[in-house]
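Q: What does the assembled structure look like for these inputs?
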Amino acid sequence: MSGSHSEDETDMRASSAKLRLAADTTDEIDLVIQDVSMRFNTREGTVTAVDGVSFEIKRGEFVSIIGPSGCGKSTVFNILGGLVGGYDGSVVVGGERISGPHASIGMVFQEESTFPWRTVIDNVAFPLEVKGVPKTERYAVARKFIDMVGLTGFEQRYPSELSGGMRQRVAIARTLVFEPKILLMDEPFAALDEQTRVLLGDKVLKIQQDLRQTTLLITHNITEAVQLSDRVLIMTFRPGKVKRIVDIHLPRPRQGDVVGSDAFGRYVAEIWNDLREEASRGMAEAEDSARLRGA
Amino acid sequence: MGAVRIPPIAFGLGCVALCFCAVEAMLAIGVLNQFVIPFPSAVLGAFGRLFAEEQLLHRLLVTGAEALAASLLVIGFSIGGGILLHKHRILRLATESWIAAAAAAPIVLAYPLFLVIFGRSSATIVAMGFVAGLAPALLKTLEGFQAVRKTLLNVGHSYNLSSGQLFWKIQFPAAIPTIFTGIRLGLIFTLINLIGVEFLINFGGLGQLINDLAERYDLPGVFATIIFVILVSVVLFSALEWIERWLRPSR
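A:
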């Protein structure tokens, strides 16, 4: 028993060292996800949300994860952000294996996440405030990022006085203000209408290109994924695995009008071909569950 | 903003004046019995006498001091207790339904017990006010902390906040609107019970004055004092709203 335990530890150390070495030798790589699996215990038994997910993201790269509902996209987001533990595998940021929230990772959430009791500038300056940065200094930095997301003039407004798209831009500025090496976004445009979604996508793309920000976007929107990404990871329905990685060779800098090009349409069709099968599986499983509940 | 608020206030005051006139007219023509309901004009006229002869201001200060003491106890214990119950699930599960039952119970009927413990003194009145206001304030405080959105907490976790920072920077401000609803509710119970107990044990400030005036069959004085209590409540709750806006500027 103890021998096996010791062997496990040796294996883990070796694998960890290998990962660190891989990250050190290829200093372009910001994020390595190695064989990550996560299981949840439910009343129906153990559910494997994600199973053996592995991928890397290079510095300044924009990667999207796309998959049907229930494929574990948000679980991957929570694991990378350090919000959940108890998973197998490893997450390595800049050569360091992480097991909780990390200063190099900034997160933008799907749900409304601005603080309603704070003005725009106080929302954006929040991460600096908790780090103890003096008020004048943090306001100066916050103004720079408020300008970057196009909200100059709204500094003293409260979130309740802004539209959904503007509130999401406040959340993005708040995440960027502490200059994370890696930006994680979990369906940040999901609650927005289509026009706002496309325009906000342009804005995010411009910021990402200006800052050369390493970005991982979780989405279920194929158009959004192709418009913004260098690579798109397609996940299978439960248990979530990486089914395929599609490289997007559309010219940069990209604008919103790229969605009208033939190449764009081909990428969307290609991804949808892979995704349709998984989405159909998800739908069939949901129908079976409903039928069983009814019986 | 001021111009927007004036018409509703003017309309409200107009309605009150209209009711006064209607009651005055019905008393004058004998539709209402003037030995049960005094003339509104006599009620308004009684205010001067109450200030000059019945030390209305002094009595207000006595009740105010008791109310302040009971309110501070309610606020302190409800927030402290709410945090405790929020943080300790087992404690919450064990006590929540009991507290809910206490909030619905007519606690004022327990005043003889408090008289035995504290005697016929301000301590009894403060204790009764505190006990009556605690349960609703505590329940709403707990509800406020329980209802903080997970996403806001995740934002805090993503910035690696300490548990103290998470509480003071996110949980507490997010819970303030519900906490204040509880405090307002608690203070209503506190004030009602406080004046009720003053009336019942004939001790203290405004409640005792109402009792004295009723025993002297001074109906205009009784109604004037009741109106005065209502006005004090309005001022108190406006002040609470102002404090809430100051603590949490936008909802």
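The interface with chain A takes residues 149, 151-152, 154-155, 157-161, 165, 169-170, 173-174, 176, 248-251 of chain B (CB under 8 Å).
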